[in-house]
Amino acid sequence: MLPTLLRTCLTTCRKVRLHKIESCSYSTYSNIREYFYHIDVHGQLFLEDTKPKNFTTCFKDKRFLDFFFQRLRVNDTGRNEQYPYVSPCGKELNYILSEDAPIVFSDLDGEQLVWAGDKRFLFHPEKILVSSTSGRIYHPSPKTLNNKTKHAEMALLKSSLVLTKFAEHLDLENRSFFWNGNTYPIQISEHL
């Protein structure tokens, strides 16, 4: 009988794996299959070779996305170092390159930020941070990746989330955020 993790991986990833084999180059190293992914600033996951990268070509299955992102970690394999993250799945290593932070919050449900497919993380309004260079807004990540990249502990708030749920509460001129009757100072970072 297969170990639970491998069985889950095989059933969750089967459809995706078959698609990858038919449509994307991959390599084999010591009986480990390697695949290459891209995460855009909207948190959409694509096979690296996918063209064009848009909503119709990204992965949408919430169960798969939860599975994939739950296993996200720093790439310490010594291989494909241009991909700072990896999501292991049985005998597969899924290497990941992100346009910005590898974790992007896509929605707010009550007081819970939504990421991956349907994973939840408590929103902390006092901890939002704005990049002085890009103007993008960040929140502490649900996963501490502890690597040397600038996004080790921060997740990006998707622009549509900021526009629909947070814009009217932001006062960037006074560097404050008004939420549920409280005003919080906004931190500005030159490092993101």
From TrEMBL:
<comment type="similarity">
    <text>Belongs to the UPF0598 family.</text>
</comment>
<dbReference type="Pfam" id="PF14956">
    <property type="entry name" value="DUF4505"/>
</dbReference>
<dbReference type="InterPro" id="IPR028108">
    <property type="entry name" value="DUF4505"/>
</dbReference>
<protein>
    <submittedName>
        <fullName>Uncharacterized protein</fullName>
    </submittedName>
</protein>
